[in-house]
Design a protein that fits this description.
The complex is a heterotrimer. By secondary structure, chain A is mostly helical. Helix content of chain A is about 65%, strand content about 0%. Chain C is an alpha+beta fold. The model of chain C has no long low-confidence stretch (mean pLDDT about 90). Classes of the chains: A mainly alpha, B alpha+beta, C alpha+beta. The interface between B and C is medium-sized, with 28 and 32 residues.
Amino acid sequence: MYSAANKLYEILNQHLGAYGVPETVITIAAYVVPCVLVLGLISTIAGMLTYAERKISADIQNRVGPNRVGPFGLLQFPVDGVKLLFKEDIIPDAADKKLFKLAPYLVFTATVLASLVIPFGGSFIVADLNIGLIFIIVVSSLLVVGFLMSGWASNNKWALLGGIRSAAQIISYEIPTALTLLTVVLITGTFSLQEIVKAQGPYPWQWFVFYNPFMMVAFIIFFISSLAEMNRTPFDFPEAESELVSGYNVEYSGMRFALFFAAEFSNIFITASLATAVFLGGGNIGMDPYSSGLGFQLLMVAVFFAKAIPLCFVTIWVRWTLPRLRIDQMMSMCWKYFIPISFVCLVLTAAWMLAFDGNGIFWRMPKT
Amino acid sequence: MNAVAAYFKNIKDAVSTTLTGMRITLRYWVREPAITVEYPDRLGKGKTKDDIVADRFRGFLKLDSLKCIGCMQCMRICPINCIRINVEKGPVGRMLTLFDINQAKCMYCGLCVEECPSQALTFTKRFEGACFDVRELRIAHILAPTPVAKLRRDGKGESS
Amino acid sequence: MSKYSSQEMVLNMGPHHPSTHGVLRFILQTDGEMMVKAVPDVGFLHRGIEKIAEKLPWQGFMPYTDRVDYVASVNCNLGYAVAVEKLADIAVPEKAEYLRVIAAELSRIGSHFIGFGALLLDLGAVTPFVHALRERETFNDLMEMLCGARLTHNYVRIGGVSQDLPQGFKTKCRNFVDHLEHEFIDEFNDLISYNTILINRLANVGVITAEEANEYTLTGPNLRGSGVKFDLRKDEPYGIYDRFDFDVPVGTGKYGVPGDCYDRYWIRIEEVVQSCRIIRQALYGLPGSGEIRTRLAKPFTVPAGEIYVRTESPRGELGYYLISDGGKNPFRLKIRTGSFSSMTIIEHLSQGVMVADLVAIIGSLDVVAPEIDR
């Protein structure tokens, strides 16, 4: 199992072992550095997505969007972050202080933990776990605990309502998400994300989304269910501004609020990366990711991002087009429409594989 | 319509109306320009602050003291009493000694401008009244006692 | 014995609320997600306009009528002017009548944009609201050309209007009306009105039957949404409204039951189209020359008497009840607004619906706080 920590340990040992740097330091560095890098990458991309959202929403609405803070307003998101850092940290008197403080960290951790197994192209993956896909699905369930905690600990009825709705929504929509991801596992037989990426090819017809028509439907269902997982419109009822005054994060201010916000936007990027890796052949240009030269690996990263970023834009685009669904309509849509359709996709893909020996319309099962 | 057909019709309706909406937003995203006038930095091609406001705009008030006949109609009609006028008897005739308009109180309704028989009181296009002290908005239009004008037959004032 | 059962919550949808209806407060009693009751608490925007009227001369009160409903100020001006003219028996010149109709119908269009725009904003669709506001900008520009102000117009006077049309107004107005009727409304409907999510949110929600609407004295689009065809411009015409040819849209249960929120929303869109028709006819029939204002006596007094005059404002019936004692100020002026009556039905409609539906109901009734509180 490839892991960036192992690779980094070897490199550091090679270069620094001769200088007498103790083993523990090298081990710690090897494990911490990739995580910090990924954390930095995800946070930066989340920040840039907030800027992109404001600019895109302005374009859709004939407005200009942020344009004062840097060239074309590009410095808006660091400036916003600094502003939120300086805000007063208000904790309601009657709130449950330990849970109140813990909730944003839990939500942010749940989101960023999933980025440990996302293959960013080439050998740039923190840990290529054998159970990568299941790890992601499991870890995003932590979000529920975080939202419930923030809703309850705020000692505010609106927050409580928002937290409860959010929890119900997320656990319901995890089912179609997992089921549609499982259709891909049927084809490749492995949960490891890097293997799934390697099994696809560089050309569009070799991606899993075009494997058979049910995979196309599965991709769309995955995308929409993950919109619900992230509490984005049309499923953003738990944080509806005009109805619930921001739901579960109404009592949070300053950096704690910024963590919730950053978690939502990081989630957008992570979902888009997951969809790219699993369905759109993210980062695959036909070469082996581990043994190619640095130039090709960087090309793979570029290809990956070229596929993931448009999916983020689609998320933003959908948000500014559609109104919000009511909570019971959301639930009925999940249980009556999405879950049956994802089951049908799963079963029919399995039947397809039986009928056609595992070959798709264009994709061919490798001979072993 | 039976339940199965309704089920599939729901799916089809949802998808088609969503896609129609998304196509319209995509067109706005990609093609339509922003219509915001970025006041005060970018007002549009060759436009000045005077151009972005219509001719009849009700901005700050301006008094032409050569035309004022001292009838005090504007003071009487003002619903908020933001005009203060003092007219005194001077050596040769009536003299205007005070003409203050409190632009902070003024609601820019235009009744005073309409009532003025000699059209001495008019609107300007000035709308920027932000200042640090509200007393700066209490504008005195007469700085020294001025003789009032005589109302001519055609309705315009003339200094006597 | 407590009147709350152990499961119920009392929530406060306070006066500070991110919604464009204004400062309105609701005290909600909910059982989890389902509402038991929603009691409105009004009065946060009370400014004592009716009392102020007793101190001001008759013409001096006109700017205050702007503020009764600042979203549709020409209609409020018009109601007051018509009431005083009827009591004092003043004739209005022909050209002024046409100008009044043009301004009032433009104001109706502007108000409806905010009406259904605010409903969409509450439901989460921000983009259509901003598009509607963009069109309202053209209305603001037209009124700025005409009378100098963008929001509180103060255009109508007792005995006519205050100013004649400027150069270029007719062309700009005609282009605006054509653009609305033939381009904007169709695109707007494609974007949001036919959207399945919106239909699911609004259809079969907050159903008001015709009997209930009459019982709770709803007026205007709220009454017409329940199927009752009653429009003051057609049934009790004032001014020259009887010369124009336009339809009165009535709620027919387009996607649900007649009298639901979707009907009230759809009627406002249809009324915009009808107002465009009226404006076009008025621009065509506008006399080229003529007086725009009857000269009033100085000092202006109104003979003693009392009168109740009602006009059709975008939110319903706007009634002015005037008592004059022959003096220079009104003795008593009472304003009856459509939004105030619409508030009375919210408590009845809110029993057994979800909190989200309550927001849709309030939005579809198109209440604005200044009208409720005056």
